[in-house]
Amino acid sequence: MFSPLIDELMSSLRCLPGVGPKSAQRMALHLLERNREGASRLSVALQAAVEGVGQCERCHTLTEQTLCGICTNQRRDDALLCVVETPADILAIEQAGTYQGKYFVLHGHLSPIDGIGPQDIGIEALLQLLQRESIREVILATNPTVEGEATAYYISERAKPLNVSVTRIAHGVPLGGELEFIDGGTLAHAFSSRRSL
Amino acid sequence: MFSPLIDELMSSLRCLPGVGPKSAQRMALHLLERNREGASRLSVALQAAVEGVGQCERCHTLTEQTLCGICTNQRRDDALLCVVETPADILAIEQAGTYQGKYFVLHGHLSPIDGIGPQDIGIEALLQLLQRESIREVILATNPTVEGEATAYYISERAKPLNVSVTRIAHGVPLGGELEFIDGGTLAHAFSSRRSL
Q1: How far is A27 from chain B (nearest CA, A)?
Q2: How far apart are CA A127 and CA B101, in angstroms?
Q3: Domain extent at residue A23
Q4: Is the separation of the CB atoms in A154 and A146 below 8 Å?
Q5: Which residue in A has a C-alpha nearest to residue B32's C-alpha?
Q6: Which of A134, A145, A149, B97 has its CA 20 to 30 A from that of A31?
Q7: Scanning every residue of chain A, which has its alpha carbon at the shortest distance from the alpha carbon of B49?
Q8: In a domain, B59, yes or no
Q9: CATH no. for residue B123?
Q10: Pair A81, A14 in one domain
Q11: What is the ipTM, given to two decimal places?
Q12: Pick among B31, B50, B64, B116 to test the A interface (most A CBs inside 10 A)
């Protein structure tokens, strides 16, 4: 319907998560009609990020430096290591603002059905890091899904012989949540993990 | 929080309509973690479109050619001209599939309060086109907003001396719409524009 360059732009925009044909069309026409400067800037930023951004050597998060800002931060506790599935999880934890240790990013979870084993999510690198550095506690903050739980269990089994304390973040009813609207699985977990007051 | 290249990518993604900080973050991490190829392709497509896409000389729609595909299409009726506000409107009309004439894109509407006058939306070019080509009917398909109506009225007044029939698309209750949920303005218009059967 449109000319080849516009069609190609619309179809390329579909690579963005949550962008369907209608949104892609709206975005392409908006950029071409009203914000060509923004489109150029986005083009440059995409190319620079694709070429420049790799993984932090220590924690595997996304960064263009050899070591990321958190790994090189002297004010953070070296003896605490929080294991998460994605860099976005780090952001969520940082925004909560209470955790002062360091991180390790798996970039996924164990999933034998998809052929994703321990070496694919860097668990060997994690174990080497536990042996190399004097880490007191590993906090497993993988997602509370079947795969996330399996990944947490696998890491805890492998880390135990290394004389490191392994903990899992608590799961239960979220603050501000109303019991009426909480799913059964979460409620059952909240009951079985109850604490004495 | 993230490294400079990732922060710049997130902030550049905000130029897309409907993309806020959370979506931009999700998009940036998705591209870097799972679809670098798509990101490169998008970067190239953006640059190519920004550099290559201009306006069709005759109808002012977005295209990288001198004349767009519809203007050069011999099978379409040269004597019918539909005036729309944006290229997206052309797509909507084409998808309806009944109109076989040609188009003229204003890229906006008259809006004295924003300093947008007839010359800014190409009304002089439209009038020249009406004089140059043997056009039988001009169909005004600007949006049914105050500005769109004013633009349609202005064009009809200017086109009348040129001996061209000027029409406006019908406005009223949409097909499949239920009267109960139609706004008062549309209903009032539907009553005042009623036709005898």
Answers
A1: 6
A2: 69
A3: 8-52
A4: no
A5: A50
A6: B97
A7: A5
A8: no
A9: 3.40.1360.10
A10: no
A11: 0.85
A12: B50
Residues A99, A23 share a domain: no
Q: Does the residue B167 lie in any domain?
A: yes
In a domain, B108, yes or no: yes
> Of B1, B7, B11, B12, which to mutate for an interface test with A (greatest number of A Cβ within 10 Å)?
B12
Question: Buried b vs exposed e over B66-83: b needs ≥16 C-beta within 10 Å?
Answer: eebebbeeeeeeeebbbb
Q: Is residue B153 part of a domain?
A: yes
Q: Where does residue A60 fall: left (phi above 0), alpha (psi -120 to 50 degrees), or beta otherwise? A: left
Read off the pLDDT of residues B99-108 as tens digits, 9 standing for 90 and up: 999 999 999 9
Closest chain A CA to residue B68: A3
Domain count, chain B: 2
Q: Answer whether B96 touches A (CB < 8 Å).
A: no
Tens digit of each residue's pLDDT (9 = 90 or more) over A4-53? 999 999 999 999 999 999 999 999 999 999 899 999 999 999 999 999 99
- A114, with CB counted inside 10 A (0-12, 13-18, 19+), is exposed
Residues B149 and B101 in one domain: yes
Residues A139 and A175 grouped into a single domain: yes
Q: Note whether A23 contacts B: Cβ–Cβ < 8 A.
A: yes
The pTM for the full model equals: 0.84
pLDDT over 80 at B1, yes or no: no
Chain B partners of A18 at a C-beta cutoff of 8 Å? Answer: 23, 26-27
Q: Are residues A94 and A135 in the same domain?
A: yes
A45 and A120, same structural domain? no
